[in-house]
Amino acid sequence: MSNARFHESGLAFVLILVLAATLSASALPPLPESLSSLLLPVGVQGNSDTALLTVRKQDRVARNAKGVMTRLSPDEHLRRAAIYLANRAFDEAREHWQALITYYPNDPRVAPALLGMGRSYFQGRRYQEAYTAYDRLAREYPATKDGREGLNFSAASLLRLGRTSEAADRYIQYINRFPDGERIDTAHLNAIDTLREAGRIQEALSWVTRTRQRFAGTATATNALFGQLRLEISEGNWARAITTADDLSRESFQKGVATSPSEVAYLKAYSLERAGRQAQAYSAYMAVPGGMDSYYGWLATDHLASVADGRSRGFAGDRIEIVKAQIDQVSDRYPIPYRQIIINEATKRKLDPRFVLALIKQESVFRPQAKSPAGARGLLQLTIDAAQKYAAHAGMASVEENQLYQPETSIRLGSEYLAELATMFPNLPEAVAASYNGGEDNVARWVRRAKQKDAGVFTSEVGFDETKAYVQKVMNNYRVYQQLYTADLRRK
């Protein structure tokens, strides 16, 4: 899916809003996701095109002569807002939340409405407005789960606004006020990274220690140590980075750990290389598992050429030949449908058509009618807000949801978006892929945070698990397409 998808459990958030239509804000226990269907017509899901068309039709008759949304029940305002949010129709969702707040100012469901307002602004990258909504929620409903969410996401909004030190202080405030809060583990990890981004390095290291002590034996403790490894690498503290990588390699890579043995092995090898310990770096790169599905294996093989001496270069060549043989065996899994459209739209924007193919394979597996739970549609899984943003630049006067299922439209708009990202992050396709999935504002932060001009170091800094996995899969696809096809998509 494109960057305009839900992060931080966005789909679950939609379901919570739908369920909130039947429950007071003070009585929102965890419930099965299947219960969300109780508030929607039989066979209609909140993110479906049918649900969107239905609620828009209902809204056309729910306005007064001046076009203002009339008073509906709080339940109904929340229900319709949830459907709009699931389809990223943010303005229409906010109209219902605002109606609930205006017509029912003392209703306990104002808190979920404010949370929805904040999330919709956040997803639309209107971070100042998101902060205002979240901050109000935190101040007016501090004793509720919604209020705690408001405090947490107000910190995230400040971070996106570049107010890193204030964001760090807000995460720490959340930790101190809600020591058993729902996001207490991620608040600790966010504090580490945000303090680092604010240049408060020693405080960040102190929070690494505190986090490892509090969450000893858990994935959170391991992730804190991973945060320290990334910090040491970005600061060029190679000896400490090597030691930290060794410590991390002995940890349990249990569920929830944000790194992998291959990534840690690569980061150690990179640190050894930067420390001038070439022979050890060579052995460390060779120890990174290879194969066509190993992102860090590809990168390690690239580095071997620069650290290998004459006697060992042959072993690096063996790794390359093994991968080539693997690719030949599965070449039929890497087709080139829509060849001419892709070539036309990519080349006019100075994109490699093979990179566009790599994205399409990951986004939709070449299914033009694909639709995601977050309302992304078509081959390149564009959301309507992203599509509308790039329509004019792509030579389209306007675009509607159903047009995103058309291959030519999807490829044209997606290529326009990718071209802008490639301009923002030249010579770093990992950052382009990360932006397409996780948002270019986040990627710009991760690039700055990495400091090192190395693709693997950048990828280790990607802050969303989903986006990191996405980057690695897209890049693996891209490498394979480069092995199989020329730049004009002819088989080698």
DSSP, total strands: 0
Structural class: mainly alpha
Q: What's the overall geometry?
A: flat
Q: Percent of residues in beta strands?
A: under 5%
Distance separating the two termini: 30 Å
Tell me which CATH architecture of the largest domain applies here. Orthogonal Bundle
How would you classify the quaternary structure?
Answer: single chain
Helix content: 55-70%
- What is the average of the pLDDT values? 90
Number of domains: 3
What is CATH's topology name of the largest domain?
A: Lysozyme
> What does the radius of gyration come to?
24 Å
CATH class of the largest domain, please?
Mainly Alpha
Order of helices and strands: HHHHHHHHHHHHHHHHHHHHHHHH
- Low-confidence sequence ranges: 4-44
Main pleated-sheet profile: none
Question: Count of DSSP helices?
Answer: 24
Task: Outline the structure in words.
- The relative contact order is 0.08.
- It is built from 24 helices and no strands.
- It folds into 3 domains: 1-124, no CATH class; 236-329; 339-484, Lysozyme (Orthogonal Bundle).
- Mean pLDDT is 90; it is low at 4-44.
- The chain has helices at residues 10-20, 49-60, 74-86, 90-103, 110-123, 127-140, 145-160, 164-177, 184-197, 201-214, 219-234, 238-249, 261-274, 278-287, 295-307, 313-329, 339-347, 353-364, 384-391, 407-424, 429-438, 440-450, 455-461, 465-484.
- The protein is flat, with a radius of gyration of 24 Å.
- It has 492 residues and is mainly α.
- Helix 6 (127-140) packs antiparallel against helix 7, helix 13 packs antiparallel against helix 14 and helix 14 (278-287) packs antiparallel against helix 15.
